[in-house]
Amino acid sequence: MTTRAGFVALIGEPNAGKSTLTNAMVGAKVSIVTHKVQTTRARIRGVAMEGEAQIVFVDTPGLFRPRRRLDRAMVAAAWGGAADADVVVLMVEAHRGVTEGVERILEGLQDIGKGRTVALAINKIDRVKAETLLALTKDMNDRYPFAETFMISAEKGHGVPALRQWLAGKLPEGPWLYPEDQIADLPMRMIAAEMTREKLTLRLHQELPYQMTVETEAWEERKDGSARIDQIIYVMRDGHKGIVLGHKGETIKAVSKAAREELEEFLGRKVHLFLQVKVRPNWLEEAERYSEMGLNFKDGNT
Questions:
Q1: Residue ranges of region G4 (predicted)?
Q2: Is 142 annotated as contributing to ligand binding?
């Protein structure tokens, strides 16, 4: 049997379902999934097997109109992920259709998509009627020559196996890029930090999640097989620290418990998780924070 391997970039607006699709394809949770937009910061790679093919998913940050340095670095990472991939999949939400953001992405594809296989995945199909789907499919294909169109529900798994099978057949022949049992190429320290950040994002109100970051400071393997993980949550103001800690420390306790439980399930062993909150007013302007997130600090320049 001939083996195949290659990179597939999922691009789209924030909240289009890219992280959910990555996790559905890989069969494990490697990408942060929340109801809040712009939560994926690094180009997380999940590895899926389909027959003799190894598909490496680059789950890019959502493409949006950037306002801050971090936004610009995220958008640069997203387009960079598409430019480096063998196949690009543009995800759009069925119920939102061709938004202004989708139109901007289609413009970007005119350049990035040259000489590359680009597919369209219309997600959240359970939210609209069949005639709406057909009209959207026609509209999108009139705007760009997609190699194939898939109608999926990443959350429910509809259409996901057909998309994965098609992608496997489009990858170049060659040896696998990762060991068969590896599901992500992010260091575990970063995956652990993303899990904690997801729990914080889910608990806190709209603006704060984008003004904080989580780093795994230390990881100690214990003799009894458990792991001790120390993490720092960086926030920009003293007031933010109070919000993260919560009344009598209730918020941070709940976040720590939820993150620890998910880490234990992911690692299959006991975890001792210790969280600290530190105020760093300028963390958004520190190169070190960006490299911890897998982003290029220079990409954030205006």
A1: 123-126
A2: no
Indicate which CATH number applies to the domain containing 278.
Answer: 3.30.300.20
Asked whether residue 125 is marked as a ligand-binding residue, the answer is yes
Check whether residue 122 and residue 240 sit in a common domain: no
Residue 238 annotated in ligand binding: no
Q: CB count, 10 Å around CB of 206?
A: 8
Query: Which residues span the domain enclosing 127?
Result: 4-170
The response to whether 62 counts as a known ligand-binding position is: yes
CA angle (76 as vertex; 291, 35 as ends), nearest 5: 85
- Tell me if 185 is assigned to a ligand binding site: no
Shared-domain flag, residues 163 and 199 = no
R_g of the chain computed on alpha carbons? 20
Q: Show which of 170, 203, 227 is a domain's final residue.
A: 170
Q: Does the annotation list 59 as a binding residue? A: yes
Do 211 and 122 fall into the same domain?
A: no
Ligand-binding annotation for 292, yes or no, is no
Q: What is the pTM of this model?
A: 0.64
Judge whether 223 is annotated as a binding position: no
Residue that wins the pLDDT comparison between 86 and 73: 86
- Residue 172 assigned ligand-binding role: no
Query: Per-residue pLDDT tens for 3-49?
Result: 999 888 888 887 888 888 988 998 766 655 545 445 555 555 678 88
